[in-house]
Amino acid sequence: MSIDVRVPTTGNAGEDAVIVDWNVRVGDQVSAGEVLVTLETAKSTIEVEAPEAGEVLRVLFDSGDEVPEHEVLAIIGAAGELPAEGDAGPTAAPTAPAADAADPGATAPAEPTPAVVETARADRHRASPRARLLAERNGIDLSTVTGSGPGGRIIVPDVLSAKRATAPAATAAPEAAPVAPPRDAEVAAAAAPRDAEFQLVPVRGARKVTAQRMHASLAGTAQVTLTRYADATAMLSYVKRLRTVTEAQGLPKINVNDVLLFATAKAVAKHPEANSVFDWDGIRQYRQVHLGFAVDTGQALLVPVIPNADALSISGVAAAAAASIEKARSGKLGTAEMEGGTFTVSNLGSLGVHWFTPVLNTPQSCILGVGAAHQSHPDAPSLLPLSLTFDHRALDGAAAAKALASIAEAIETVDVLSAF
Questions:
Q1: At what angle do helices 233-249 and 256-268 cross, to 10 degrees?
Q2: Average pLDDT for residues 333-351, to the nearest whole number?
Q3: Could you give the C-alpha distances from 322 to 304, 306, 330, 339, 346, in angstroms and in order?
């Protein structure tokens, strides 16, 4: 009996996953626990294992396809067992019906040979499921389409190209219509976009979820951003001394971002109105700071959370941050490790950015953007740009300004603050 291999729970109900890579092909023999396929969600990568040993009877999606949560990815069963097309469940192998008793000359159809079965299997998989659906909706015969996917497989862009090629020519303009001068026509032709001039990047997986959340954040909140400088001279000197001592004694490294997270958590703890989550039923102002911080993995922007960050030492914050960054970049950061945040920090200083407007990580009410420290001349103090975006529904501008001032002060005195 065949078994469906499905997309596991991704952590967010209804969230799609993107297929990164298949480790098996149709016809392969697999053992229980063997990794069949790797998926990517908005927050992590997932390895899907074979629930038991058997033959891979069907692979329903291609690498790069976006697949809903709990959708069937593949089917495993006994060798030679062939589920019917469009049926995710088991289907008995075809058997020859008995000859009609009233017609002694009737003969039963022969069972398909292995070669015929393999050809049928190949025909079903010569186009991705989404490409087949698009072709059916547009009346395009896939036998006339040349595939550009792996192994010549037909993918969605191939069907779109075929659709454009078969589109009827535009109706000629009436004779009385004015004709643009040649120069204008040349300019118009030069301005017209051409497929060869751009690369189409699908909006899916982590990028799709991030886009949806950012759009929802801006559309559903009253966001305002305040900016100011903090004098980072003492902090940078303190980090330099910390680096010297930790390297000399073989201790874990502590960097500028670790110290910034520590100072921010200490300051935000004094301003519960900024350490809050907005809801129409009431604004939840938290007593502890569960600090989120943005991590660019190269594939997606993730925001791990350091629970009770305001109660940790600098070394404690540094250790928690380092562990979260490692997990995020290796695709092992769990959903639970990105939930429950009450305040978020986004640091773009290492990229040379000074000022920017961070977007709220809803439902949180505040997010701090940190830019690159810089000096106007060699003897001037090192100024650190701070941008605090807040939800005006949860707190007023004066309260946000006071919270930002406390953060700046904590940064300026972090070498003393760390002693308490």
A1: 120
A2: 93
A3: 11, 11, 12, 18, 15
Rounded to the nearest angstrom, the gap between the alpha carbon of residue 372 and the centroid of all alpha carbons in its chain is 27
Cβ atoms of 373 and 347 within 8 Å: the answer is no
Q: How confident is the model at residue 257 (pLDDT cuts 50, 70, 90)?
A: very high
- Chain centre to alpha carbon of residue 222: 25
For the chain, how far is it from start to end, CA to CA, in angstroms?
65
**Domain region containing 8:** 3-84+116-125
Per the CB < 8 A criterion, the answer to whether 412 and 230 are in contact is yes
Give the CATH number, domain containing residue 335. 3.30.559.10
pLDDT tens per residue across span 97-124: 444 444 444 444 444 444 444 444 444 4
Query: pLDDT category, 129, cuts 50, 70, 90?
Result: low
296 classed as catalytic: no
- Among 130, 72, 303, smallest CA distance to 209 is for 303
Q: Which of 28, 296, 354, 392 is catalytic?
A: 392
Residue 280: inside a domain:
yes
pTM: 0.65
Residue with tokens 């189409």, as numbered in its chain:
200
**Res. 337: pLDDT tops 90:** yes
CA-wise closest residue to 320 among 351, 341, 349: 341
Mapped onto helix, strand or coil, the DSSP state of residue 58 is strand
CA distance 120 to 396: 66
- Pairwise pLDDT comparison (182 vs 290), residue with the higher score: 290
**Which amino acid, one-letter code, is at 357?**
T
> Is 396 one of the catalytic residues?
yes
- Tokens 């969230």 sit at which residue? 15
Span 356-406, pLDDT tens digits: 999 999 999 999 999 999 999 999 999 999 999 999 999 999 999 999 999
Please tell me which residue in 100, 184, 195, 396 is annotated as part of the active site: 396
Domain termination site, one of 93, 125, 157:
125
Mean pLDDT of the 199-211 span: 76
Q: How many domains does the chain have?
A: 2
Task: Say how far apart CA 217 and CA 197 lie, in whole Å.
Answer: 33
CB 153 within 8 A of CB 147: yes
- CA separation for the pair 60, 83 (Å, rounded): 12
φ, ψ of residue 333 in degrees (nearest 5): -75, 120
Q: What is the CATH number of the domain that holds 120?
A: 2.40.50.100
| Strand pairing category for 343-347 and 291-293 | parallel
